Amino acid sequence: MLLDSIAQASTDVAATRSRLAKIARLAQCLGQASPDEVSVAVTYLSGFLPQGTIGVGWAALRELPAPASSRTLELLEVHEAMSRIAAIAGAGSQAARREELSDLFGRATELEQRFLTGLLLGELRQGALEGVMVEAVAKAAEIPPAEVRRAVMVAGDLGVVAAAALAEGRGGLRKFRLMVFRPVQPMLAQTGDDLADALARIRPARIEWKLDGARLQVHRLEEEVHVFTRNLADITDRVPEIVDAVRALELEAIVLDGEAIVIGLDGRPRPFQETMSRFGSKVNVDEQRTTAPLSSFFFDCLHLDGEDLLDCFYRVRFEALESRLPEALLVPGIETADLTEGQRFLEEALARGHEGVMVKSLDAPYEAGRRGAGWLKVKVAHTLDLVVLAAEWGHGRRQGKLSNLHLGARDAETDAFVMLGKTFKGMTDQMLEWQTGRLLELEKDRDGHVVQVRPELVVEIAFDGVQTSSRYPGGMALRFARVKGYREDKRPDEVDTIQTVRAIHAGSSGQELESE
């Protein structure tokens, strides 16, 4: 398969807002790929490199050779070139990468050069997110989407599943099952307007504290324990206290879903950034275990002593969890259909310093990787996960630091990011230092005092409301926006959508504008 086929499909998908048209075009393209090409094609069309970040930024792509006049680049040739570039390290690596890039881009047509540039910079926003790709794979292989989705859930790799589906059909998907030490994509939650709204949609329900911690998945088989983040990264060596807690359980095998959080001596949760700092650190782990110990709270059980529980209702999964874990390791919760009782529980969670509550259907299976209707999160304070689009150099005490952040939400229809406003509030000196270095790593261009960055860094923003504004492309702005913390555990495609912000605006803008 020529790279041109992938680039043209990407262009066509970006040109339509129709989900069905996107799926049909992607399926057509995948149907042309050989078994060896399918995995790479799926990953490229999803806007990612199989190798991950390979050390190529905007500066390396500023001086590209003239495009080729004929289409000769094969998809697997490009894949091999990207692997070689990713492997370059040591003295002279920058020059070596440029040489490889020059050779690759010199053989690419203008369309292919644009596609490769977007791929390398993480800017292929053509609306081919995993949900669309799953349905495209299903259509190309003539398999029900639910079967593809479940295989991806347990395999954790859509490219591998797609290759099996197109080569072997439904039979090829049967080999994918939950395996201890192979992490499963986490189930995600939708947002409820308030507790009354959540209980109107789910009743009866299990209501649990919503912890402002870091999602984690823990796998144990006999004495071996592995801990994974929500992005499926193995962080076992960084969290020895969690490993010890799960290893102490009287069982043979288990897969747990839960949260890790730093709790202060007063029993209240410490700021989210302290938890993420602990998660992200690979040094002085023993010392940090003493100064910032992580507490683990689990709310789901996906496997227990040889039995997979993914397809079981939540009531069954929680009963399994409750039967084998001590109360200290369980997220506190109640089962109720009564709003008054639920409200008392919510107020207790808030009084203890937590974000709010989760409202979960007792009759829902585990929908990995999806924001299913079986889980609803209810927060009292408004927060959004947004992506940083740019930052401005600070003044005065912040001279030399990137301070004022340009914030963007994702458009669910186009997969593009829409700017909602700016903020320089809520940042500590340590955060300013860190974000300046990180944003400069993501720099793609400068315009005076504004540094444009690749949209990869996710930040959690607290705000008081949404108001109409003609200053920003979204037609709205966040009121009193402030940084709550960076979410390096989240991908850019997981940020909140502009459609969610519009819903918040529609529900509360009248009151906010009157109070101005």
In short:
The chain has 516 residues and is an alpha+beta fold.
Structure description:
- The chain has 516 residues and is an alpha+beta fold.
- The protein is globular and about 70 Å long.
- Helix content is 38%, strand content 24%.
- The protein has helices spanning 3-14, 19-30, 35-45, 75-87, 93-106, 110-120, 130-141, 145-155, 158-168, 170-173, 195-201, 240-247, 272-280, 285-291, 314-324, 339-351, 429-441, 498-515, and strands spanning 188-191, 205-210, 214-221, 224-229, 253-262, 294-304, 307-308, 333-336, 356-361, 371-379, 382-393, 402-410, 417-423, 443-447, 450-453, 458-463, 465-468, 476-479, 482-486.
- The chain folds into three domains: 3-173, DNA ligase, ATP-dependent, N-terminal domain (DNA ligase i, domain 1, Orthogonal Bundle); 188-379, D-amino Acid Aminotransferase, Chain A, domain 1, CATH 3.30.470; 382-515, Nucleic acid-binding proteins (OB fold (Dihydrolipoamide Acetyltransferase, E2P), Beta Barrel).
- The termini are far apart.
- Helix 1 (3-14) crosses helix 6 and helix 7 packs across helix 8.
- 41% of the residues are buried.
